[in-house]
Amino acid sequence: MSDATDYELSMMLRALVMESNRFLEIFSAAHELHPTDMTALNLIMTSPMTPGTLAKALNLSASATTSVLDRLEKAGHVTRERDPQDRRRVELRVLDAATALAATFFQPLAREYASAWERLSPEHRRVVAGFLAATTEATSRVRESVS
User: Which DSSP letter does residue 57 get?
Assistant: First the structure.
């Protein structure tokens, strides 16, 4: 495997992304979430943000972002909170119940990952971490250049 070509690495990464998407689809379907809703939820979980920041991250209009947030709020996953310092500013936050629900669903996957990764030496983990970071950064750069 150490002699994998760029193409082979790309295909393995593509397979991982596709398998991850299929896994997310199960969670989305079980909780009646649109794929865009899942992406929004993941973004908000990563860092509290404003609706405008979310719209930009999703590459959606303000009205489409409002629809996403309405669905997520109705489902009990997010809340919109006014900034106490600037009442015009709205912050999006993921509710604890949504985080707990996601944790329950994703814990088996986390355990499987840990089991697969425990066989890696510290040096191999550093290589994998570097590969993932560099690949994520490259994907982000290309995404930004085409959006």
Answer: H
Q: Are 108 and 115 in contact (CB under 8 A)?
A: no
SS3 35: helix
Query: Which pair of tokens denotes residue 12?
Result: 């393995």
Taking only the tens place, the pLDDT of each residue in 42-74 is 999 998 899 999 999 999 999 999 999 999 999
The DSSP bridge partners found for residue 78 are: 94
Beta bridge partners of 49: 92
Paired tokens of 58: 């999703």
Residue 10 CA to its chain's centroid (Å): 20
- The pTM for the full model equals 0.77
DSSP structure string for 10-31: HHHHHHHHHHHHHHHHHHHHHT
Instruction: Tell me which amino acid residue 103 is.
Output: A
Beta strands in 1-147 (DSSP E): 78-82, 90-94
> Under a CB-based contact definition with an 8 Å cutoff, are residues 112 and 76 in contact?
no
